[in-house]
Write a structure and sequence with these properties.
Radius of gyration: 42 Å
Strand order of the largest sheet: 3-2-5-6
Number of strands: 7
CATH class of the domain at 7-94: Mainly Beta
Largest sheet: 4 strands, antiparallel
CATH architecture of the domain at 7-94: Sandwich
Mean pLDDT: 82
Distance between the termini: 98 Å
Length: about 200
Amino acid sequence: MSLIVSNTAKGQVLKDSGYIQFSGLVLTSDSIFPIPFVVVSTNGLGQYTDFNGFFSFAAKPGDTISFTHVQFKKSIYVIPDTLQSFKYNVVQLLTNDTINLPITVIRALPNRAIFDKVFVSKEIPDDKLERAKKNLDKQQLKERAAEMKPSASENFRNTMQNESRKLYYQGQLPPNNLLNPFAWSEFFKAWKRGDFKNKKKK
């Protein structure tokens, strides 16, 4: 058994209850495109627009209707309280709203133990790129180079050069750079650069 209710009977029911059939379309204000999933509500009740931006529900004359969407500015519409018909249609335009959300970085951790430690301490370790940037910092590289000791190959090369020099000048005096003009030229350049100033010890 089926029950068929005509539009006239439906209108009479709405009119007697004080409600109207409030319907409409929600479109973008710049391009007139339909906006789906807009929350159309009044007094805590309402619905979402469909894929074509259409909505329809029962409301009372004088109700304040709000249109909210995460991508658009909120809009308010008040239904006139002088309506004579039980139907009322509107076309509501919404304006785009730019929302700047904070940057969220999703980073994978190797295992659950590290995740638990990071979760408790709230100190997220640097990823490989950040560690590489810190390791290539010019000041840090300079400090590390100053503290770095010669390697085994460098020590061997230096020792062999000293031994070769001794063998080359064996039985005679090594040359004296006191009267060498090139040595004096390098001395004056180093003096102007300040190479002989007392450096503060760390």
